[in-house]
């Protein structure tokens, strides 16, 4: 019967081509605009490590003196000072932990045909790779020993491996970064972690590094920060050591706490650490505290999805509702015009349910067609966003969920709009039309 | 087979109540051919619609094949209508987008009959009304008489025990009307019970029983001994 309904729906749509086209365009434009904004919202709000959402935490410390405040909603800096990062690294509580710095180098390839280039790098502890499940194609992370002593080793991404060596296993080879040779210990497989949950300071997308070096090299190589540096008081910094000793926050810190007990232990540890530092003359404020935020909290806290995006999604759904209202009125007029035929069908044995279903299948087909056309319009919209605004390059995309969501939303929206007209026509009294048709 | 007891039908509007049927009593036996006559607005079509469960009634009891129609849900009435009743309308009421084959197929689909069986029945019924060769034509390509024959084929395809005809020859010329009437008589001879509303006294006389409806009530009925066949014989003489 369902196939028969599809056949009837197709005939019905063909019978009134102008009205069908108008309805198709209405739903397609509505879906196109909705899916454009929804896709951007979806890509922005995706949690790339949902399975470890409440295990990986960003660490924050309210380090400022009593009279200083931070611009964040909870008065907590996003990053840590070097001295705090180094102290926290001593904690035995976390299952894994890493301090991080966004830095960069001039890379001088061995191959004379490749010009030297600047490359963003990430200084991190070896736990970084396991914590964020970074896949290796060859080799692996550096030893834990290097996290303590510092050694010029590097892990490079697949893209950089291809760029420098043309691909393959190049573990053991050297690369020259700012005139210093680094031995490659690991080569990553193709990898993407977006939004870049380990460092959202300079944009959440398109920033996954191709070069990783031990955090322990920071004081040895005097690694420069290519990210954000914020302070709450004036401090003269004449030497690199001055910066290391300063209250400038410039390092990201993440811990992996696998269960509730470990999380509570770490909170207790932070509280104890603050008290200890207060005794040493730091954290001079009554409400000095530490905090940890898990991934989705962090994404929300850092407003990866801005309020503008949320408003845009709301507006686009309102536009879709207007489209649906138009479709509803067109469907109502179309279906009621067909009441005499429905009267005949009812006389020949069609139940109200069957008539209702017949019409719902028709609006469902309209929804499916509108969804497909809407997808094309959404692709155009996303393309325009990508080409017009560079910050949308990574997020103006559609993943499989959105590809499937478009026709689903379209069909459901059409069914919603079609329910009333279908209900209305199935309730017509057949006898009313049989004599007059 | 069909038993109506004190059936009443009242149409209500804000200002007036109209009694289309009142204390309407009728018993129809299996295999009968009944003609219902009466002036316009007397309630003939209302009776036919209630008999066909296309309308509900206000009071009384209606039993069809021992089933109390008043207790059925809308879907139950649709199912009963589909299984036991065939309709023939004055205006044919064919679906213009569907060809003859598909028009005849409509009630069979709602009954859930399998494709092969549907095909067999449709071809048989179209042959029976003499339109087997035109199955792929659409109604607009046929004359009025041919369209009415398609409507009869559609009514027959469900192999109904009841055939309800509302002025089936009203839109036809006399030659076509005679052909359609002969077809109905043949169908009745094959065992179907027929109730036919008509304005034509000549056609009414060809039925076995003639019921006259006035002001929503049966005011008279005549039983023609020998039924339609005798009427044809008389007409032929």
Q: What is this structure's SSE topology?
A:
The complex is a heterodimer of chains A (437) and B (237).
Chain A (H helix, E strand, L loop, with lengths): L1 H14 L1 H29 L10 E6 L20 H7 L7 E13 L8 E8 L2 H5 L4 E4 L4 H6 L3 E4 L1 H8 L8 E4 L2 E9 L22 E4 L3 H4 L18 H6 L6 E5 L3 H20 L10 E5 H7 L5 H31 L1 H9 L4 H37 L11 H27 L3 H5 L3
Parallel strand pairs in A: 3-8, 5-7
Antiparallel strand pairs in A: 1-9, 1-10, 2-3, 2-6, 2-9, 4-7, 5-8, 6-7
Helix pairs in contact in A: 1-13, 2-11, 2-13, 2-14, 11-14, 13-14
Chain B lengths: L1 E11 L4 E12 L4 E5 L6 H8 L7 E6 L2 E2 L5 H11 E4 L11 H12 L3 H14 L15 H14 L4 E5 L7 H16 L3 E5 L3 H5 L3 E6 L2 E7 L3 H10 L1
Parallel strand pairs in B: 3-8, 3-9, 6-7, 7-8
Antiparallel strand pairs in B: 1-2, 1-4, 4-5, 9-10
Helix pairs in contact in B: 3-4, 3-5, 4-5, 5-6
The assigned structural class of chain A equals alpha+beta
Mean pLDDT of chain B, to the nearest integer, reads 84
Number of strands of chain B: 10
Poorly predicted runs of chain A are none
How many strands in all of chain A? 10
Average per-residue pLDDT of chain A, rounded, comes to 91
Which features does this protein show?
heterodimer; A: 437 residues; 15 helices; 10 strands; elongated; B: 237 residues; alpha/beta; 6-stranded mixed β-sheet; 27% strand; globular; disordered C terminus
């Amino acid at each position: 019967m369902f196939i028969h309904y599809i056949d009837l729906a197709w005939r019905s749509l063909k019978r009134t081509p102008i009205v069908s086209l108008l309805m198709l365009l209405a739903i397609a434009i509505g879906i196109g605009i909705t899916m454009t904004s929804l896709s951007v919202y979806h890509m922005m709000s995706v949690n790339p490590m949902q399975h470890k959402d409440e295990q990986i935490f960003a660490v924050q410390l309210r380090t400022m003196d009593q009279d200083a405040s931070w611009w964040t909603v909870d008065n907590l800096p996003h990053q840590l000072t070097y001295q705090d990062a180094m102290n926290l690294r001593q904690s035995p509580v976390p299952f894994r932990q890493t301090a991080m710095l966004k830095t960069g180098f001039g890379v001088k390839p061995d191959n004379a045909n490749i010009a030297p280039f600047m490359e963003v790098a990430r200084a991190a502890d070896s736990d970084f790779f396991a914590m964020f499940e970074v896949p290796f194609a060859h080799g692996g992370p550096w030893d834990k020993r290097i996290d303590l002593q510092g050694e010029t080793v590097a892990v490079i991404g697949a893209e950089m491996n291809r760029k420098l060596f043309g691909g393959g296993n190049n573990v053991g080879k050297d690369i020259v970064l700012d005139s210093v040779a680094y031995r490659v210990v690991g080569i990553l497989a193709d990898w993407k972690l977006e939004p870049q949950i380990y460092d959202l300071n300079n944009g959440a997308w398109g920033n996954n590094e191709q070069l990783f070096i031990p955090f322990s090299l920071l004081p040895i190589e005097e690694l420069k920060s290519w990210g954000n540096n914020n302070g709450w008081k004036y401090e003269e910094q004449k030497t690199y050591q001055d910066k290391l000793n300063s209250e400038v926050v410039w390092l990201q810190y993440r811990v992996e706490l696998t269960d509730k007990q470990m999380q509570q232990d770490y909170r207790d540890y932070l509280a104890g650490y603050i008290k200890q530092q207060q005794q040493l003359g730091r954290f001079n404020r009554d409400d000095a505290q530490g905090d940890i935020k898990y991934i989705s909290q962090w994404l929300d806290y850092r407003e990866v999805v801005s309020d503008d995006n949320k408003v845009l999604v709301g507006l686009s759904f309102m536009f879709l509702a207007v489209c649906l209202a138009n479709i509803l009125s067109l469907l109502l007029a179309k279906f009621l015009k067909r009441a005499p035929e429905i009267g005949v069908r009812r006389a020949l044995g069609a139940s109200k349910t069957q008539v209702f279903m017949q019409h719902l299948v028709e609006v469902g087909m309209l929804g499916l067609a509108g969804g497909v056309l809407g997808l094309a319009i959404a692709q155009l919209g996303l393309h325009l966003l990508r080409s017009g605004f560079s910050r949308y390059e990574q997020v103006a995309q559609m993943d499989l969920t959105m590809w499937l969501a478009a026709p689903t939303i379209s069909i459901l929206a059409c069914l919603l709009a079609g329910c009333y007209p279908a209900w209305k026509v199935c309730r017509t009294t057949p006898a009313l039309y049989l004599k007059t048709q | 087979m069909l038993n109506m007891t004190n059936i009443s039908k009242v149409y209500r509007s804000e200002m007036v109540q109209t009694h289309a049927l009142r204390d309407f009593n009728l018993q129809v036996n299996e295999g009968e051919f009944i003609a219902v006559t009466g002036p316009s607005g007397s309630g003939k079509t209302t009776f036919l619609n209630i008999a066909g469960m296309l309308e509900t009634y206000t009071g009384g009891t209606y039993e069809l094949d021992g089933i109390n129609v008043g207790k059925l849900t809308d879907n139950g009435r649709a199912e009963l209508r589909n299984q036991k009743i065939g309709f023939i309308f004055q205006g044919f009421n064919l679906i213009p987008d569907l060809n003859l084959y598909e028009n005849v197929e409509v009630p069979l689909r709602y009954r859930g009959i399998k494709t092969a069986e549907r095909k067999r029945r449709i071809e048989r019924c179209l042959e029976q009304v003499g339109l087997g060769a035109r199955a792929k034509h659409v109604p607009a390509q046929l004359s009025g008489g041919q369209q009415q024959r398609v409507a009869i084929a559609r009514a027959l395809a469900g192999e109904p025990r009841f055939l309800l005809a509302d002025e089936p020859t009203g839109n036809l010329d006399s030659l076509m009307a005679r052909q359609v009437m002969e077809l109905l008589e043949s169908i009745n001879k094959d065992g179907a019970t027929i109730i036919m509303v008509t304005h034509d006294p000549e056609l009414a006389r060809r039925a076995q029983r003639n019921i006259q409806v006035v002001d929503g009530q049966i005011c008279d009925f005549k039983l023609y001994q020998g039924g339609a066949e005798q009427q044809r014989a008389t007409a032929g003489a």
